[in-house]
User: Which sequence fits this backbone?
């Protein structure tokens, strides 16, 4: 049977559209092992994609067969993802740093036809995929071909799966988020309408390829005819190397989690002055601590800062420009309104739509860019893809995000926190984000995290903070007294610990499980004092 043909709403067709208009323009600028920058044009990227697709097509894979792609972000990795998209082979991205146990869980879950690794990666002793291969600038080399399939499909449809991204699941097993071509293409077209990036931009991507924020950067850059600039993991480990790379690559837009900026802001903020071409910073994944955000704006006075809000299940929901400068009284950032073609609605605990400003509710997202469901988990899917609370009779499904927000007077939303970050203290409901926001208003505190820690058969609220510079001191007694003035008694942390850094997950979010362990056995922390009224 001939090669399956992609529909108009296909990730490959959208992202390689600029190849027909500006074929010689750099699609990707990347550094080699020596740190030397190389440009890969849209023409060359498309040719590499076609080469990979020819090899994949020769394996006889059918539309819907999964391909695990293990790589860091690079031109070759992007070509591999696009080749899979062209043929209707859902790609499942994993990082080379993914632990064997997690990778094994993913492989067993999706039962891939092929496990393709970037050149130079050591082979893992995990023979769970049917076939194996490695790829790079020189081509796609099949090491062990998968068993021949019977092709049942002729066309790659918009409703077919484009990719599966695995996130942390509440059961302890990775949870696969399934996104269709139609969903991701619709989302990226909304980004084009909102003008997040333009053809003159050089977009730096800093997240590991296995996370949707990396796919977001690839999609936004290429669909807009811009240039993608992947930042190597080794460069992210040093503020001086990271800033030097961004400067040399003439980056105009940086995508990253808020913690990306913390080391340079604490240790050498003057380095940021070297980024003369930087026009915008897009962050997502977590709230940006207000003190750190103020410092970033002070050191990058000409850069636009954009707050991205959303979940993997919809790629994102909104992008809101942060006021510059932030008003002195600003305590929480607005997440504004939904992106083009989508809408966010607040629903309270009674199931009623919130219309009164100042009220808090859970965010429900109405969008054509929602995920299809969780891989092989219809029960979890049904819990978040729910009937529209405004009018459930038409059968339309919306995304129940689990995020809480406050309605503003202009209809905009301010993120409050996760509904599962609400805890009960002596029968009182406590939103951890509110306590953290209070702590970051202290003069020397640049970031804070609060968690519930078991203590003598009970659970108590404990806090960890990071100070704005090495050698800084926190008057913990004064900090606890400030919390007591600003918060109800039951919301005041039992103790405050200073840490050099907050523990982070692989994608840069606060690792609350590890934080709880640290605070439960606080060896190595300092400036600890207990509140007398908690």
Assistant:
């Amino acid at each position: 049977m001939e090669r399956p043909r992609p529909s108009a709403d296909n990730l490959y067709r959208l992202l390689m559209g600029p190849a027909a208009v500006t074929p010689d323009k750099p699609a990707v600028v990347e550094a080699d092992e020596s740190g030397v920058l190389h440009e890969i044009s849209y023409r060359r990227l498309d040719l590499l994609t076609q080469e990979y697709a020819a090899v994949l097509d020769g394996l006889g894979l059918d539309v819907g067969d999964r391909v695990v792609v293990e790589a860091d972000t690079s031109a070759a990795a992007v070509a591999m993802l696009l080749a899979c998209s062209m043929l209707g082979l859902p790609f499942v991205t994993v990082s080379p740093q993914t632990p064997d146990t997690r990778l094994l869980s993913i492989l067993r879950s999706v039962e891939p036809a092929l496990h393709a690794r970037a050149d130079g990666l050591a082979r893992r002793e995990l023979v769970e995929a049917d076939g194996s291969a490695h790829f790079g600038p020189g081509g796609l080399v099949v090491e062990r071909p998968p068993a021949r399939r019977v092709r049942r499909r002729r066309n790659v449809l918009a409703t077919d799966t484009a990719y599966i991204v695995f996130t942390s699941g509440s059961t302890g097993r990775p949870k696969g988020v399934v996104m269709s071509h139609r969903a991701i293409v619709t989302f990226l077209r909304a980004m084009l309408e909102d003008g997040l990036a333009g053809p003159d931009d050089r977009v730096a991507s800093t997240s590991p390829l296995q996370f949707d924020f990396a796919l977001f950067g690839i999609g936004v850059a290429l669909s807009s005819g811009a240039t993608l600039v992947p930042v190597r993991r080794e460069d992210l480990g040093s503020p001086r190397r990271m800033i030097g790379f961004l400067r040399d690559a003439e980056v105009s837009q940086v995508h990253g989690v808020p913690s990306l900026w913390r080391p340079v802001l604490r240790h050498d903020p003057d380095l940021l002055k070297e980024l003369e071409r930087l026009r915008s910073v897009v962050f997502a994944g977590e709230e940006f601590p207000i003190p750190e955000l103020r410092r970033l704006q002070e050191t990058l006075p000409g850069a636009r800062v954009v707050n991205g809000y959303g979940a993997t299940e919809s790629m994102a929901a909104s992008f809101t420009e942060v006021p510059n400068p932030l008003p002195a009284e600003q305590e929480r950032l607005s997440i504004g309104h939904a992106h083009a073609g989508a809408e966010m609605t607040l629903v309270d605990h009674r199931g009623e739509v919130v219309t009164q400003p100042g009220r808090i509710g859970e965010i429900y997202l109405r969008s054509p860019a929602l995920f299809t469901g969780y891989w092989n988990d219809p029960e979890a899917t049904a819990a978040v893809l729910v009937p529209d609370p405004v009018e459930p009779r038409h059968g339309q499904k919306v995304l129940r995000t689990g995020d809480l927000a406050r309605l503003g007077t202009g209809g905009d939303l301010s993120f409050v926190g996760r509904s599962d970050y609400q805890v009960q203290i002596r029968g009182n409901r406590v939103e951890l984000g509110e306590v953290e926001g209070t702590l970051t208003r202290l003069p020397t505190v640049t970031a804070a995290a609060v968690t519930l820690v078991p203590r003598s058969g009970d659970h108590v609220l404990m806090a960890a903070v990071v100070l704005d510079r090495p050698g800084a001191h926190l008057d913990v007694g004064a900090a606890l007294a400030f919390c007591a003035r600003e918060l109800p008694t039951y919301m005041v942390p039992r103790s405050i610990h200073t840490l050099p850094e907050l523990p982070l997950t692989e994608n840069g979010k606060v690792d609350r499980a590890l934080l709880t362990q640290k605070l439960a056995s606080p060896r190595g922390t300092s400036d600890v004092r207990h509140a007398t009224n908690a």
